[in-house]
Design a protein that fits this description.
The complex is a heterodimer of chains A (260) and B (14). Chain A is α+β, with helices and mostly antiparallel strands. Chain A is built from five helices and 19 strands. Classes of the chains: A alpha+beta (260), B mainly beta (14). At the A-B interface, strand 19 of A face strand 1 of B.
Amino acid sequence: MLELPLVKGDPFHHVMEAILDLSDVAHVVCTTRGLNLLAVDTKHLAIVSLLFPAEDFKGYTCDEYISIGIPIRDLVNAIRCGDDKDTITLKVGEENFGTITLSFVSPEKNTVDYEFRLVDAKLERFRLPDRHFLRSKYQGSVKMPSVEFRRICKCLSNFGDEYGVISVTDEDLTYFAKGTDGDVYVEYKQQEEDTTIFKIDVREPVRLAFNPKYLNTFAKVFTLSGQVKLFLSKTHPLMVECKIGQKGRIRCFVAPKVEP
Amino acid sequence: SGVQLSIKEFYRPD
């Protein structure tokens, strides 16, 4: 049995809204320890993963291992229909195996229940790298304010939706996007006096090409946290992470492009 | 503008 309390605008809802146009199904694994959501876009260019430990989820109840595929559009449409003041609970029970129920209870105790079919999402689950892998295989990381990161992603995506590059050295971080009529180039210098807001940590310079559209899609999710951390590798997907609550986190992986 | 790689080339199904 699973009971997942949700609030309009919480990280779970935010991630679902963000990936609405990229993916049809979110694969969710729940255990007594917490929730792990994973969604892959239909073109297999990006993955988003949300980890939410039970202690960060007030009212979370799960007494067994549950692995389900949630139809993203149905869930988002239902949440959008609810009122901001409603208490929302996602339920998966033994008696209604194969379906999930989304219950909305207003402050006056009026209720609306949505019931929809679960989706088979076994093929959409990938074994993602752990922190040890990121430390050993990635040549650099950059910590920066999430609002700033979103602004850049929006700018890159508006300018050129197909081709962007992130480069990092121990002195600066640069973003580049190629548009049809021109290019955009953004540079951040590492400030020696303050590394709490912006910090570059590289073993060797890294240059990574990617599609800015995907990064822009996820960037709004990262504003749930004050800061984001980018992990860059010459041979692996770009990974962006932000922390949610005490021990929760959101990660997105964007597959690179091989430069001509 | 480069050849787009798939995420499947990096991560195996769980």
